[in-house]
Write a structure and sequence with these properties.
about 425 residues, Growth Hormone, Chain: A, globular
Length: about 425
Amino acid sequence: MGLCESNDGTGCFYCRWPVVSAINDNMNTSIKSYLIITGGYWAFTITDGALRMLVVLYFHLLGYSPFEVAMLFLFYEFFGIVTNLVGGWLGSRIGLNLIMYVGMIMQVVALAMLMVPEAWLSVTYVMIAQALSGIAKDLNKMSAKASVKDLVPDSHTNKETLLFRWIAILTGSKNALKGAGFFIGALLLTLFEFRGALTVLAVSLFIVFLTCVFMLPAGLGKSKVKHKFTQIFSKTAAINRLSIARFFLFGARDVWFVVALPVYLYSVMNWSFINVGSFFAIWVIGYGVVQASAPGLLRKHHHGKAPDGNTAMRWAFMLAIFPVGIAAALYSGFQAEPVLISGLIAFGIVFAINSAVHSYLIISWSDKDKVALNVGFYYMANAAGRLAGTVLSGWVYQTQGLEGCLLISTLFILLAGIFSIRLVVEPNSR
């Protein structure tokens, strides 16, 4: 069977699973390159998730307050803003593979910086190491996401539906692996302690880096048009509104997920490192699975068509129900453990669909020559939202508790829905 020859409009097996499609098409150079980039992105994602869990748990164990733990990630998120703006422009000029190499090496350096004696691990020093890690993460994310636009054939009869599927699979699998990284981080901390865990992660990622260098062709992802640096800011209204909605959407997640929740589970509910890491791993893996399955879950509502701005608006307002519901249940004295577990499952399902729709729209609404620039601008907003959420997660939890973080999350989600209202109409130009 060729690419998407099914008659039911749902797409063939090969459309659903791009890896199999790539093999069936004799693994041409462009698709092999994309798969290598994706594999490198997956490997990097595991180290990123593991490092985040290591830092949160280890520095809480050292006696850092929730706000101080949050501040350790301040540069991580701040430099993500700068990286996404500049990285998209650089990727279009020098090639996405070089962007990925730089990101991997920076992550290895960031991991090595944290292997120093405990007395050296001041807040400022750790923030600098986390800054390198944040830059590395966003370089890798931008290079992988921007590649998808070139992979989908222009001649495909259901191009937009196929694009949605492939983006959802890439993003969902990445998030599932980040969840695995949370578990790996907690496990390595238990088995090898902090510095030993960092050594394992750094060596593993360096091996992946060498593999990618030998397998990827030079100049991958260069744009035919040499964009000026002043073009890094989007001039498309719909992309700007989508980016603002993304800011509030991810700020809403991180305001209670990054610092408040793991510290609450460890210090209030007396969970062990392994229990905290395993819980986050299962949640993020499940989140990734739902995200990858979003095209199938939304198919009935869209009659086989790809989602639009109206989809983003509806699912954002639906998401606001869950954090305010969890906060109300905790405030009313319900048992915390079942409330948090059931609430997080529901929140994760709806949030995953929100994120999958957003990730599709930014790629769909971008021309091929501008996709790296637009993706960079969009994930700049994503990083800014994560920065706001991370700082608020530590400060609000320390002053208002987990319930306060959940109420801020609700407010952010409502704002994401409001900014999505005008996304109902697709842009006339890109």
